[in-house]
User: Fold these one by one.
Assistant:
Number 1:
Amino acid sequence: MRWIIGDVHGMLRPLEGLLAGIGRADSEARLYFVGDYVNRGLESKGVIDLLLTLNNARFIRGNHDDIFDQVIGGQNYAPNASKGDRAVAFKWFTEHGLVETLQSYGIANSQIARVYQRPQSINEIVSAIPQAHIDFIHNLPAAIDEDEFFVTHGKWDINDFAESPSISEQLVTDPARRHQLLWGRFSQTEVAAPKAWQRVGYFGHTPVDTYPALLGNRDPVPLRGTKIVLLDTAAALLPNGRLTAFCHERQMCLQTDRQGKLVAG
């Protein structure tokens, strides 16, 4: 069966526990990740090390991965507020978990601080990151298209078709759409509204507690609307955050808490 996994954000123990739980529930599981593997949590390096061992998985990029790509490789897929400046992106995302990511690679705080004074010293930091990790981040696609569903990170306009041509094809020459795909967020009204696309869309990026009227008093769980499932259950952001895998065939989920223990979903 096919399992779509929400934003990991450097949370290695929840990822390990979730993969173990999926393995027990489905020995032939196929895994699809919605992006944002780095930042916020303390073990981004360990997360990518683990992801690189998976033979049954497909990955797309999130906005945090795109910024990391820009910082370590000088390139990004979608336009963002840094306007292509590596140093600006670096300083901006030290406020959003990049420091923890760099520390997970053994990069000292003094080296990180030096970039503020000498932006060209970013290259010294990059030398500590394994080439396999640089390649993994740089080669992440923007979307996965399956016959019954698609997986993207942030937002696909509810009034836009997602088929014939595919999302990936539509993004090739459209920077504004690429930005929306990685950085956009659905309104509560849009989650419930009819969609122009024909398949189910799986998304991460926006923590489900952003929609209190939909989540209610529950611990973070996937939110489902018309042809849409939102899977960022705030594993790295909330004390009661969870990492979620949603099974497309069974329409049910598995979740782990921040200690990596399976919890009732």
Number 2:
Amino acid sequence: MPVPLVTRILVADDHPIVRSGLKKVLDAQPDLEVVAEAEDGAEAIRKALAEDVHLAILDVSMPRTTGIQAAFQLSKRKPELKLLMLSMYDSEQFLFESLRAGASGYVLKSDADHDIVDAVRRTMRGQSFLYPSAVAGLVKDFVDRGDNGDGQFDILTPRELQVLKLIAEAYSSKEIAQELVISIKTVERHRQNILDKLGMSDRVELTRYAIRRGLIQA
């Protein structure tokens, strides 16, 4: 698909000052325009599907639905949409999960002022954008693991990750059922499956795991 003359961009981040800063940098370029904003992953999914956007910039850690969860949903439901992750964390795990979710690149917030324009343009050309230490991490991971497909980041299904995030945010089973539009019985089944898969016994352990996975912030 040819690169549009002006790339229409959705910026999703739960901090208004970050969205404002990205918009200022991107809108200063003649070929880039921020046309939509979202403050959490659920809103990002809704707006990306409803509006005419070519690329979504998604913060890795957002309330309700994370950027990685949003990327996974959007890559399935709107595969032509380009995805770029934004994060304050120099984390190999977040990087790997972002790429698995369908993102073309990963930009650190600390470097966003001078990296974001290049990252957007590379992504729109069908190329990848990774900060230097991320490349080293990918190489190390390949060498250490080989091509054995151990699936260490795929232990939980996307739905189980959604339930886990809400459990860690202290939602009750009833509130989770309402949020995800499923039955309380289904929520409890997901909860037990999560505990069994992770070898854990209570919400405290699940919350610690959710923090390590970047589903919520400590």
Number 3:
Amino acid sequence: MFFTKLSVVPGTRPLAAAVCAWVVLASGCANTPQTDKTATWSPNKIYAEAKDEASSGAFDKAIPLYEKLEGRAAGTPLAQQAQLDKAHAQYKGGEQAQAVATLNRFMKLHPASPAMDYALYLKGLVNFNDNLGIFGFISRQDLSERDQNAAKESFESFKELVARYPESRYAPDSQLRMNYIVNSLAQSEVHVARYYYSRGAYVAAINRAQSAIADYRDVPALEEATFILYKSYDALGMTELRDDMRRIIDKSYPQSQLTNKGFRLADSPWYKFW
């Protein structure tokens, strides 16, 4: 807003002229207040509108409506539903950190909620898709460059769901995703071990391959981890350990193609879609 010197128009009163000028200036500077269109809406109407916006993909419009509903229907099951739906909208809208924060708040405020299994499942999904999902492999993203913390947090959410709610409708898919996460984490270790081997850092390759074998069980990546040990011991001239690894490969992976064809190609995925 700005001020200017007022001049008196002949034939008018100074005060009236000043008032008129102030009104003109004020109308040009002041912001017209936004009216809340939901002020007269019932909680059910707000929820219906929010669902419609989310269904059409307008998550940026749905989230504020869910937030209004949380306050308008505080203390009711509808408010709890609004929290969960807001978290889902944040997740679908690419706001992973906000979605996790919303779910953490929900679980803290409603520890006995009958929807706790869904909250855990959704939290697992948020972290699963954030840094772990299958699209990273499709784009050939380097596993060694990916943050595995999200994968571990995702695993913990799914693990808690399966342990606390084994009969939940979300338990079977959670178990599948847990298997995938374990495979991914093991493959990450093996990927780094292979990288070290390709650079001639055989001791480092051995350490990472051994870490994968020690930390994980019954996952596809362990076949290559064993093969990396075999090749690294051979490169270092450690023939006894090399031969031990070859016997393990022949016994544990009798159909292995690694001993004949070498390392797994980048375009040969270890994982399965479900």
